[in-house]
Amino acid sequence: MSIQESGEMYLETIYVLSQNGGSVRSIDVSEHMGYSKPSVSRAIGILKKDGYINVDRSGFITLTDAGREHAEKIFERHTIITEFLKSLGVDDETAAEDACKMEHIISDASFEAIKRFGGSDK
To answer: Which CATH number is associated with domain 5-66?
Structure first.
């Protein structure tokens, strides 16, 4: 099952928010990403339908196993690419912004090479 870049961004946000405080609701995602409530609601519906998240009766969002796996992969890419760019002398803000774009399109082979080059091979 393929997921679009926007879906990956939502999954990563849900993952990060859940790591920071546990319970995640659509409003938390909306505020964190700076997106409108209707946009977030639409995305949450798609992610739920595709089996990446569950939403309980109280509106709390949790990642399914598939959602967590995908979110962890994107988060790892974001973190390692950010650190790699910073090691090349890119400022923190630009490195994070560029990593956010690159994490969705970089091939597995290129990402693994960056991990090896940066000493982040896990």
So the answer is: 1.10.10.10
Q: Domain 70-117 has what CATH class?
A: mainly alpha
Q: Provide the 3-class DSSP secondary structure of residue 52.
A: coil
The pTM of this model reads 0.84
Structural domain spans, the chain = 5-66, 70-117
- Token representation of residue 112: 């693994």
Contact (CB, 8 A) for 8 and 63: no
Query: What's the confidence (pLDDT) of residue 39?
Result: 93
C-alpha 80/C-alpha 43 separation (Å) is 26
DSSP helix/strand/coil, 105: coil
- Is residue 98 over pLDDT 90? yes
- Note the pLDDT of residue 49: 95
